[in-house]
Fold this protein.
Amino acid sequence: MTKIFIIILNYNRHQDTTQCIKSIQSSNPPPGTEVIIVDNSETNKSKKILEKTFPKVKLIKTKENKGFAYGNNFGIRFALKNKATHIMVINPDVTVGKSFLKPLLDTFNKNPNAGLVAPTHQHKQNGQLFYGLGGKVDWQTTKCEHINTKGLKINKSKKYQFVSFACVLIKREVFEKIGLLNELYFMYLEDVDYCLTAGKAGFQCFIDPRVKVKHETSSSFSI
């Protein structure tokens, strides 16, 4: 039986987290899907508001803010302990549409070697709409290139070296084989590192263009 845990890392942005959760709840998630809030904030303000707004949602409070990987690993451990088959990492400043988890699961079913599947990320730069896809590493310069396009020209799942962890679904076997996110990264590049490590272990990363999420790119930079 498929059991999905969705992890949202909150850092002083309960408004964004609230919108994210409400969009997930309205997306017709498969039975058994659970949301976990990991609160990385220094104070209890967000914790109190989110517990009151979502009394049935599991909330984990960290003792200190030691970054993206550190916070998400709290949720990942909880999900694995509670028999998750798939774990989603999603930023609080992301909102999802009606057709969301089921197509991502379908990509796993059609691609046995898939370990990580992400949607396309709609975001704006200088007022223009872009679609964020996967990425690749230029090993001569060691630069990571995130591929953004104004028009979405692909209509079926496509492999990439890495995908953004602003929103990604990862199957349990990946964590069992290569472990949790690398906490040496505070914020940025932990997704690239994890995807490359997964690739070395035989797992592939996919973007499913049938699924689009809106990424406001705000919470990650706010204090």
In short: Helices lie at 14-25, 45-53, 68-81, 101-110, 172-178, 190-200. The longest strand covers residues 114-125. The CA atoms of residues 13 and 75 lie 18 Å apart.
